[in-house]
Structure formats: structure tokens, C-alpha cells
Write a structure and sequence with these properties.
Elements: H1 8-21, H2 46-62, E1 66-77, H3 87-92, E2 101-113, E3 119-122, H4 124-127, E4 132-137, E5 140-150, E6 155-160, E7 182-187, E8 195-206, E9 216-219, E10 231-233, E11 239-246, E12 257-261, H5 262-275, E13 281-282, E14 285-287, H6 292-297, E15 306-311, H7 316-320, E16 327-331, E17 334-335, H8 339-348, E18 354-361, E19 364-371, E20 373-374
Amino acid sequence: MKRPVLSYTGIRAIALAFIISMPVYAGTFLDETAEPSPLKNRSERASVYELQNAFNQVYENYRDSVVFISTEKTVKVRYYHPFMEDPFLREFFGQQEQKPRTRKQKGLGTGFIISSNGYICTNHHVVAKMDTVTVTVGDKTYPAKIVGSDPLTDIALLKIKGRTSFRPVHFGDSDSVKIGDMSIAIGNPFGLEKTITTGIISATGRRQVDMIGNSHIQTDASINPGNSGGPLINLDGEVIGVNRMIYSRSGGNLGIGFAIPINTARDVLLDLKKYGKVKRGYIGVNIAMFTKQLANELGLKKPEGALIGAVEKNGPADKAGLRQKDVITRINGKKIKSYKDLLRIVSRAPINSTVNMTVWRDRKNRNFRVKITERP
């Protein structure tokens, strides 16, 4: 029986396979670096790898659910020349005032898909007053329309044009979020698509973030410009917030980011889908600054409550009998510490419902029933 003879081609293929399998640094001063790490596969590190795997899974699950948003609008700009500041030179050279020119202003942000037919949640400030909005899902770009946008909560609802099927995220319960929980942010900071950062929940119920006292989740997961509108996610792969803003003195991340609780966003999104806006309660009063001196003059120990600065004629408060310089201290038994409490409770009250208000007037409490109407 004849022995099989390897051809030149076969010998060459085996040699190449052997060479390829060898470390590129074999036979060099780097030989010792090929030794396996003594820490690799140690059982006491199993929990760390489980956490790492959780991060991997969240990213893989949401890589096609988090979208890149590009916006564009046309703005007018005036041509400037130093001669235009000098009347003599302007007259001498016969230069007339230039008409405004236009230029394209572009923006970017993040959003996430909330339905398989292409509805997207993002921030109001990402798309506000923009002429065109486009979204990138994976490697495909689609035009999108603004279904509705709410400046008070900074939530906007977009719809991708077309019938392509998309992968929505999963909502969690932001009311169950606890300080110390791990958090994951996915977004497009500085235009760098699908960037994932991790951290913890630093605080909940932050109301100092905006002027009307909306509740926010604080996280130290790195959030930067371009992350706005992206999801804040827990280890179960549930969206618990909509990333909104950062606290920064330099424009970069300082480990203090804020997200709108997803329970708040859910209610807003339902209204935006149904009405194109958010229907809010209204009583027709203007709130004045409440100082300690004013509180003392009115017979109160401290400036707690909402001081009425003006009452709209024939508005709900006027019809109920409220007056200027009344201090609203309670609504349906809930204490009003500042105007932010008043705004929050009234805006969320059902339209055409009636609330019981306790008002401080003439150094004593009085009770009024006020009908809530829709904010104009």
C-alpha cells in the first residue's frame, strides 16, 4: 500500500496554519506576556462577570431601540461690516443696509423607540422649533414628524414615516427606583453613536432642577451633550427615565445628570399621542414672590404656601372667591410649601374637577372650592 504523498500546496497550507496559530510575539522579549493571568476565571469574580454580562445584554437588547436624532432649521443672520457702524463711511461708500441672510442650524440628540410602528420618545428641547427631524436606526435613516411636544416636562413624541417594523424598549416603574441602584445610559454624546455609560442612582425626587419643580432622577452615569432624550435603564433592561440635562461648569460631565422619571413621561406621551399636547389644570392666578417680611405682615411665621399676586377676572379662582394676597396653604388636605407644589397639583388635576383649597386670609384659614379648567 502506497503512502499518501502531500503536495506542495498541502504542505504550504499546514505550515501557514501553524504559523498563524503561533503568537505574533513568539521568540521575542514579550514571550512572558503570553502566560495566562492568575486572576482569569477565578470563582470569586463570578459575580463581577455576571454584572458585566448584564451590561452586555442591555446594550445588545437596545442597540436598535435607541436612535440618533438629527435636526435642522433655517435661521436668519444679518451681514455685519464695521463700515455699517459709521454713518459717514456708510454714506460715502453708498452701502445700503444688507437684507438678512439665512443659514442652516443643525442639532443632534437621542431618542428611543416606544412602539413597533415607529413612535419615539425624546426631549422637547431636542426638536423644538426645528424644520426637519431625521432619525437613524441601526444603519438606516428615516424622516420623522413631531406628533406633539411639551416644554414644561421637556418630553416630545416623534413618529417615523413609513411602515417598517421596529423594536420598542421596555418601561419600568420609576416610583420603585432606589438610591444606590445601578443605572445605564445609552445615547449619542457629541455625536458618538450608541455610547453606553454606567453608574448609580444618586438621588430621586430632585425638584430643584427646573422652575416648576418637576421631579427628576439624579445619576452619576456619564451624560453629555447629545445624550438628551436617551433612556436611563436599570439592570433588568427596563427604561426608568429619559435623560434630560447635566450640571456642569465646563460643558462636560461632572457626574451629575438628571432624567425625567418614566412614569411622568408615560402620562405625557399618552396625551401627546391623543391630543398633540398635554392638557393641564388651571385656576387663573399669578403667583408672587413670598418673602419672610411679607409672611410676617400677613401673620405667618414663615413664607410657606403660594402667595397670589393677581387673580384673572372671571377665572376659576375669581369665581371661587380667591383674592390678591391670599396664601394657598393646602389643596385637598395636601400641604403647599411653595408655588411649585401648587403648580404640580393643579396641573395634574383632572379637567372640570373641583378641589378644596385652604387659604390664609386676614390672619385665619378659610376654605374654598375651586373648579379646575384646562390651561389656555
